[in-house]
Each structure stands twice: as C-alpha cells, then as structure tokens.
Design goal:
10 helices; 25% strand; eleven-stranded mixed sheet; alpha+beta
C-alpha cells in the first residue's frame, strides 16, 4: 500500500484460530473445516423450557383460593380497568457456530463460537417503550484439553486478552464493540454436568450446552442488577420470556456467585410460548392437557404448585388463553395456540400466592397480547407484544453470521 509516497506492507489481520494455532507451538492443529451456523443446519439439541411431566398422582393449589374448580374466568372489568403492572421485559437469545475441528494431542474436538444477547426493555407508559439494558457477548467453546497445563481461569482470561489485541489490528473490529468476551471449556471425559455423553457428535452438544448456560447465567445477572437498582416492585413487574426454572447444575458460574436468589424473582413472571401441556396433574390427578386445550378466551387454569427436581425450588404455574370473548378463534393452528404458560417463584415457601394477584397478572397478560404481531412471527398467537418488541430489539443487535465466521 502506498502511504506518503512510500510502499508500506499491509499485513492481513490474523484469524482467531490461526493465532491460537501459532501461539500453541504445535499443541493445537486446526483442520480448516467448513464453518456453519448450528442454529440453521441442525435441530436444536436443547430443550430447557419444560421438564418431564410430574409423577405425582395429583397437584396442590399454589394460590389462596382453594375452590376445587378446573378453570377461572378473568373478569372483563378487571381486564378493562386494571392498572398496568408490567414495566420491564427481558429476553435472552444466542446463535451458535461450529468454526472448526481442532486436534489436541491424539484427539479431535469441535470448536464452537456463540453470540449471546440478553436484553431488557422498559415501558413507562403506552407511548414510551425503550431499551433499558443490553448484554452482548461473543464466546468461544473449547474442550477442556485446551488448558493443557490446567492453569484455570487466569489462563483463559489472558488468552482472551491476547486474542483481542490481535483483533484490534483489524480496522473494522477496532471501530466496533465486537470482542471475544470469554473462552468456555466443555468437558471431554465421561458425562458432562449437563448429562451429555462422550459419544460421537456429543462434544458438539456439550459446546452448545455451555454457550446456552452462559446465556441463562446472563439472564439471571440482569434480573439481579434490576433488583439491586430497586427497579422491580409491586407496581413495576418484569416479564421474562421463557421459564424461570434455572437448573443450578446447568450454569457456568461458581456456586458462590450464582444470582438465582428466590427474593430476586418476587416481581418476575415467566411466560412461555411453548410448553409441555402434561407437565402437571390437576387436583383430581388428571393431566392438565385437556383442560388447557379447552380453555375459553381470557380463561386460566388454577395455579398449581410445581416442585422442581432441577433446583429444588417451588413454583406457581398456571395456563392462560389470551384472546378476549367475542374474538374469532378460527386462526388457531392447534388447541394450544394463543395459550401461554405463566409461572412465578414461590418466594415464601410456606405461603401461597394471593389469587387476586394471579388474576391481576392474568388480566394484564391478556391486555399485553395487543396489538398482535400477525405475519411477523410464526408464534404470533402466543406472543405478548412488548415481549415481541424486546425479542426484535435483541435480534437487531446481532452481528451478521458472515462477520462472526470471518473472525475464525
């Protein structure tokens, strides 16, 4: 390149895996295999929103109203006149890429990269909806054999710094927020802590699992931060897209640093668009699936106590059909379209959740379904509009897959 009348050598920025291979002095060998997005080319191997159906013969109520009825109709006046209680909306998302196969010693392992986005939006009134917080991370999932000398977290942190110093030489990267935030190590022997075996292709599953775990850890950190800032209270609830059932064994955080404190979730409602309708039995010992399928518009099931095997926490869970009376329901693809699963952490394990609060939450959720995002999302019937906006905001923060793959 000609600069100031002189030819100056223009060195092409080194790729991340080339840098690792060079720095490894023969300990690592990259095969330069095809780079692919696992989100596009494979079915998702993970399903964390719902767990197997309860083996109990019957469930007990998690709400104060003990009437032995299967469903509760949400009063139309409550829907019309109830004060808005939801001000914050949180969603987590990730993209996973297989960027290469690497030989370490006599074994070959897949190397995965992940983009993680966790975002929270805030609504002050009907005319004000804006971003409140965003966490954006690029992580690299490597086999634990990568840390040859077992140096631990400090080794990984310093490696990240050196990689980022190399990335800074790229003018485009230097002018963006794109950096490698973390190197995560997945286990390579026996079963890992997520239950994946060491069979063929399961190293790829392990890498995906550890990236997913980092996303759910980040969700918990964001809720903890909102609580620390006193943002959540009985007038400003948060809707978290998806289940609140975080498994402590499915986490990358040290046990002492985990932020899934029961008290943090007093004013948080988890809303799932997809769910296992046979997760819980009713008070008569019957699966809830038929009751859920037969819900009328603006009607909910009773709230039942769900004891999680994963984290030993108790939850109040109920199912709600969103559309109001009088609407044409012929659009439904299945009997579970426009039904959502709602859950709250039982903060005081010995106390049930007040039925009036559950009805107020349900009335608000019915209103949050409007306007609809018909045609913009295949799951539109189960969407709450502010959650859809929050998802859209998070997705808008992704770097393109081509940019990510070109780093490697």
């Amino acid at each position: 390149m000609l600069v100031g009348g002189k030819f100056v050598e223009c060195r092409k920025p080194m790729k991340i895996l080339d840098f690792i291979e060079k720095k490894g002095n023969g300990n690592y060998y990259c095969y330069k295999t095809n780079k692919v997005s696992l989100d596009i080319t494979e079915h998702d191997i993970l399903n964390y929103d719902d767990k197997p159906a309860s083996s109990k013969k019957s469930s007990v109520f998690a709400e104060t109203d003990n009437r032995r009825v299967h469903t509760v109709k949400i009063d139309a006046d409550l829907i019309k006149d109830s004060r808005p209680i939801f001000s914050y909306f949180l969603d987590g998302s990730r993209h996973v890429y297989k960027v290469d196969d690497m030989a370490i010693g006599k074994r070959i392992f897949p190397i995965l990269a992940g983009q993680i986005i966790v975002g929270c939006c805030y609504r002050k009134d009907r005319d004000t909806f804006k971003p409140a917080k965003i966490s954006q991370k690029l992580v690299l999932a490597m086999p634990d054999d990568f840390d040859i000398d077992d140096e631990g977290a400090n080794f990984l942190r310093l490696y990240c710094e050196e990689i980022n110093n190399e990335l800074e030489k790229n003018p485009y990267i230097r002018n963006t927020s794109l950096r490698l935030n973390q190197i995560l190590l997945y286990k390579t022997d026996g079963k890992d802590k997520y239950g994946n075996n060491s069979d063929k292709d399961n190293f790829k599953n392990r890498g995906t699992s550890i990236i997913q775990a980092e996303m759910t850890d980040e969700e918990q950190r964001m809720v903890a931060q909102l609580c620390k800032e006193n943002k959540l209270n009985d007038e400003t609830f948060l809707i978290k897209d998806g289940s609140l059932e975080y498994n402590p064994s499915f986490s990358n955080m040290d046990e002492g640093k985990r932020t899934m404190l029961r008290e943090n979730y007093r004013y948080v409602v988890g809303v799932s668009k997809s769910f296992d309708p046979e997760l819980i039995r009713d008070f008569e010992g019957q699966r809830l699936s038929k009751t859920i399928a037969n819900l009328k518009p603006a009607e909910r099931t009773k709230a039942y106590l769900y004891e999680s095997d994963a984290n030993k926490e108790n939850y109040a869970i109920w199912y709600l059909r969103l559309r109001k009376e009088g609407e044409n329901d012929s659009f439904r693809e299945t009997n579970f379209s426009d039904v959502i699963k709602c859950e709250m952490v039982m903060v005081d394990e010995t106390e049930k959740i007040d039925t009036g609060l559950i009805d107020l939450i349900s009335a608000n959720l019915v209103k949050e379904a409007y306007p609809v995002c018909y045609g913009n999302d295949s799951r539109w019937a189960n969407h709450l509009y502010p959650v859809y906006l929050t998802e859209s905001y998070c997705k808008s923060k992704y770097f393109s897959s081509d940019i990510i793959l070109n780093l490697f």
